[in-house]
């Protein structure tokens, strides 16, 4: 009869083997991947060595969760550990109780039917406890009821069943001398091994199929997001072209006219936060503009709005729609916005729409950067001339700049919410 230390040592070694095997063969790697195999082997050890093994199991779970949290940076909280320990205890103790008489009287060895019934009790029946607990852990870990829960249930159930029906008969055969013929011993080992291989293959196939489904789902989501972003960019380009055409067709655009036009083309459920019009103002016209409209501002290095320094040319935001939440931008000189690779003079000399790098918006905090789409609006009658405005780099044909402010945070949040229920 092995001593308590020997029993605990044997259980600890078996747990280590199970954990290493799980880490090598189960993908994707996570804390819940270990629960099914550990529940199955604990069932076998409790039936074989008694409920004292539950203490070893508890220690192993605590050590395992601490190691995974520290080495692999997995998020494992105390609630997950407690639920895991309680579920494994319940499953193994239930298995011991419903098979107590069969093990003590060795009834499970009397016939093939008795053996199959015994294997059903320790495997498929009691493994439901572990699989159900893993569903709860999955929902706690994801914070929402999403994902393929049926696959999670089946994979954890089959993993627990796999280890329980393999280890339990083998351990019971060495518990004490059995009055068994060589043929019966061979049959028991053969059935356990066959069940182990069959369920293992089934588990591996189902896992491979699930991984392919996840890959296909990821690729489909990637294509959908790319298409959606392209549509948002195309929408911003379309709105800017419409605004540019409106500006060119009107000699003077009043605030009511701008608002009336833009609200007809503006789409509130898109990623476009605002449409802006910033006319060119020469330095000689600055005083008159500031009397009639607002002060021309620029952003300092400390992100504060200050009066713009003297320059040959300004392009202050004159109109913005919608004004709610964006009125602070009025008067800001868009020519002072930071640009990457291209200078603002290069951008304004072209007829193409150019997008900025993501920048922090004046009308928002730093947690939601935006992308600015610039469209220089030129007077077609003067566009062929190369005359510049005073000593600046800007052509006299430049009427101003149409700007679309695009923020993708709400767009991605919408996609994320849609994906949760897809």
Strand order of the largest sheet: 6-1-9-8-7
User: Residue-averaged pLDDT, rounded?
Assistant: 79
User: Major beta sheet, specifics?
Assistant: 5 strands, antiparallel
Helix % is: 55-70%
Order of helices and strands: HHHHHHHHHHEEHEEEEHEEEH
Using the alpha-carbon principal axes, give the shape: rod-shaped
Strand content: 5-15%
What class would the helix/strand composition place it in?
A: alpha+beta
In angstroms, what is the radius of gyration? 35 Å
Count of runs of 4 or more consecutive helical residues: 13
Number of strands: 9
Which parts are unreliable, with pLDDT below 50 for 5 consecutive residues or more?
none
Distance between the termini: 57 Å
Write a concise keyword list for the protein shown above:
422 residues, alpha+beta, 5-stranded antiparallel beta sheet, two-stranded antiparallel sheet, 9% strand, rod-shaped
Characterization of the model:
With 422 residues, the chain is an alpha+beta fold. 58% of the residues lie in helices and 9% in strands. The protein is built from 13 helices and nine strands. α1 (4-25) runs parallel beside α3 and α6 crosses α8. The two termini are 57 Å apart. A five-stranded antiparallel β-sheet has the order 6-1-9-8-7, with helices on one face. The chain has a two-stranded antiparallel sheet with strand order 2-5.
């Amino acid at each position: 009869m092995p001593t308590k230390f020997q029993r605990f040592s044997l259980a600890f070694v078996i747990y280590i083997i199970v954990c290493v095997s799980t880490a090598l063969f189960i993908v994707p790697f996570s804390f819940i991947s270990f629960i099914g195999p550990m529940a199955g082997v604990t069932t076998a050890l409790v039936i074989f060595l008694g409920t004292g093994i539950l203490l070893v199991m508890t220690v192993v779970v605590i050590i395992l969760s601490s190691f995974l949290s520290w080495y692999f940076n997995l998020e494992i909280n105390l609630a997950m550990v407690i639920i895991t320990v309680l579920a494994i205890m319940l499953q193994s103790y239930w298995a011991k109780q419903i098979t107590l008489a069969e093990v003590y009287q060795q009834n499970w060895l009397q016939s093939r039917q008795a053996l199959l019934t015994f294997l059903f009790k320790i495997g498929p029946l009691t493994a439901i406890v572990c699989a159900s607990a893993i569903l709860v852990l999955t929902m706690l870990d994801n914070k929402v009821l999403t994902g393929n829960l049926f696959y999670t249930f089946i994979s954890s159930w089959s993993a627990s069943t796999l280890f329980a029906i393999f280890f339990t008969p083998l351990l019971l055969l060495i518990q004490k001398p059995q009055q068994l013929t060589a043929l019966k011993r061979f049959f028991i080992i053969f059935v356990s091994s066959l069940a182990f291989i069959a369920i293992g293959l089934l588990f591996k196939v189902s896992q491979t199929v699930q991984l392919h489904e996840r890959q296909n789902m990821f690729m489909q989501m990637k294509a959908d997001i790319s298409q959606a972003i392209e549509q948002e960019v195309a929408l911003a380009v379309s709105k800017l072209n419409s605004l540019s055409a409106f500006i060119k067709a009107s000699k003077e655009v009043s605030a009511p006219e701008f608002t009336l036009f833009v609200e007809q083309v503006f789409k509130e459920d898109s990623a476009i936060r605002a449409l802006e019009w910033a006319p060119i103002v020469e330095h000689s016209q600055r005083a008159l503009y500031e009397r009639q409209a607002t002060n021309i501002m620029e952003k300092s290095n400390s992100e504060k709005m200050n009066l713009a320094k003297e320059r040959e040319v300004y392009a202050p935001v004159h109109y913005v729609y919608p004004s709610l939440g964006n009125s602070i931008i009025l008067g800001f000189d868009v020519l002072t916005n930071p640009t990457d690779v291209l200078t603002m003079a290069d951008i304004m000399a072209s007829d193409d729409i150019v997008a900025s790098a993501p920048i922090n918006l004046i009308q928002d905090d730093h947690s939601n950067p935006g992308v600015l789409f610039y469209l220089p609006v030129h007077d077609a009658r003067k566009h062929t001339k190369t005359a510049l405005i005073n000593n600046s780099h800007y052509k006299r044909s430049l009427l101003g700049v149409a700007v679309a402010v695009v923020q993708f945070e709400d767009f991605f949040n919408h996609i994320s919410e849609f994906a949760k229920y897809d």
